[in-house]
Amino acid sequence: MIFKKDYESSFKNLSVLAKDLEGFCARAGVDEAVAYAFELCLDELFTNIVSYGYGEGNEGSVSLELSVSDGVMSAEISDSAKPFDPFVQAAAPDLNRPLEDRDIGGLGIFFIKRTMDKVSYRRDGGRNVVRLSKRLGTALESCI
Predict the structure, then answer these.
(1) For residues 121, 87, 57 and 65, what is the CA-based torsion angle, rounded to 10 degrees?
(2) What does pTM read for this prediction?
(3) Which sign, positive or negative, has the C-alpha torsion 1, 36, 32, 21?
(4) Tens of pLDDT along 97-113?
């Protein structure tokens, strides 16, 4: 099963993406834990694309492709914003520092890496392409 859609890069589309994801997961029989993991991760990536890739208020589009095959759910989210590999270029959080001494933010990409079974980035045809995969039936709490 495959779902594809393009979204305008605006925060107002976060709820649209979430509803599309929920509908896809229901139709594909994706368990709640995996569906929730994708909701959190795609929300983080979409927010980062709008905030930092394009910048809120700037025009751009974000493409999403969801699929389920052989017991694995995958999502591919892409944009034509400036090149950025979140899995290499985003600073790793210092989890050893006391919470009150940490900078705000910086945990989203860390969370995505820990939550998904596989993550990848590539630059393809002037687009940033992030791919996330997770085996169905794997609990979220085992990932954090």
Answers:
(1) 40
(2) 0.88
(3) negative
(4) 666 665 655 677 888 99
